[in-house]
């Protein structure tokens, strides 16, 4: 009888721990997904990596190449 109680106690304890781990991982995944969704939605407004001002009629192709009026110029 003691062995049955021991096995049941181990089974119930491990199932509770697995359930708690599953809940914690789901919460962490949800928070990570929400953060990535926020970053992807507002990343255009937060991008300050290029401090150079680009004029409205210029299109930056690479770091030193600029497209202006259909022609490629070195900057």
Can you give a write-up of this model?
The chain has 1 helix and 3 strands. The protein is α+β, with helices and mostly antiparallel strands and 75 residues long. It has a domain of 49 residues. It has a 3-stranded antiparallel sheet with strand order 1-2-3, with no helix packed on it.
Brief summary of the model shown:
This protein has 75 residues and is α+β, with helices and mostly antiparallel strands. The chain has one helix spanning 2-46; strands at residues 58-60, 65-68, 71-74.
List the topology elements.
Elements: H1 2-46, E1 58-60, E2 65-68, E3 71-74
Antiparallel strand pairs: 1-2, 2-3
Organism: Clostridioides difficile
Transmembrane segments: 12-38
Protein name: Two-component sensor histidine kinase
Described by strand count, sense and barrel closure, the largest sheet is: 3 strands, antiparallel
DSSP helix fraction: 55-70%
Class by alpha and beta content? alpha+beta
Q: Which runs of at least 5 residues are low in confidence (pLDDT < 50)?
A: none
**Order of strands across the main sheet:** 1-2-3
Average predicted local confidence, pLDDT: 76
Beta content: 5-15%
Radius of gyration based on Cα positions: 28 Å
Number of helices: 1
Q: Total strand count, please?
A: 3
- Span between termini: 84 Å
Q: Give the SSE string.
A: HEEE
Globally, the shape reads: rod-shaped
Organism: Clostridioides difficile
Keywords: Kinase, Membrane, Transferase, Transmembrane, Transmembrane helix
Transmembrane segments: 12-38
GO molecular function, one term: kinase activity
